[in-house]
């Protein structure tokens, strides 16, 4: 019979971070398996050439709709912030749909097209994210005119007025900045 001290050390160790009992010995084991950070990156497909081209086309449509007040760099930066990435290199194929919604919403807003309540709220929030000081003037406008501060509690007409006000301030900001 072998005593615990005579056993091969490899026969009494195990993977994990638990207390285990092997042949009467209590052993505390450490987690030896290391996580592979590349496994996550490899599982998410990078953007194809077509998807990159589509994002570029959508960004250019936004610049056109904004009448050149914003640059493609500003549009891309806002999109990266929205998606939570640093650059297009970090974007994955599953982000393309979210990017499409963001950029198409921005384009439709800039063209003055009718938007749903959720889309109007999203556009006001986009404006505040890109030019934070416009939030103060917009909230003052809503307090003074509608006695409200929360966008979600506004009627459709109040939201339309708020978005129109924010867009007017947005355009003035970019025109002054680009002058």
TrEMBL record:
Domain of life: Bacteria
Name the UniProt record assigns to this protein: Uncharacterized protein
Organism: Burkholderia aenigmatica
């Amino acid at each position: 019979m072998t005593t615990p001290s005579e056993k091969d050390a490899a026969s009494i160790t195990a993977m994990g971070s638990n207390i285990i009992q092997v042949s009467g010995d209590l052993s505390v084991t450490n987690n030896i398996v290391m996580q592979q950070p590349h496994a996550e990156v490899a599982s998410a497909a990078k953007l194809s050439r077509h998807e990159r081209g589509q994002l570029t086309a959508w960004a250019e449509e936004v610049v056109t709709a904004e009448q050149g007040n914003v640059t493609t760099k500003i549009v891309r930066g806002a999109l990266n912030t929205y998606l939570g990435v640093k650059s297009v290199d970090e974007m994955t194929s599953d982000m393309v749909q979210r990017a499409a919604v963001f950029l198409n919403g921005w384009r439709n807003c800039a063209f003055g097209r009718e938007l749903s309540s959720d889309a109007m709220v999203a556009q006001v929030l986009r404006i505040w994210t890109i030019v934070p000081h416009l939030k103060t003037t917009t909230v003052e406008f809503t307090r003074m005119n509608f006695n409200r501060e929360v966008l979600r509690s506004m009627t459709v007409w109040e939201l339309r007025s708020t978005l129109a006000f924010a867009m007017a301030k947005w355009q003035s900001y970019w025109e002054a900045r680009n002058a």
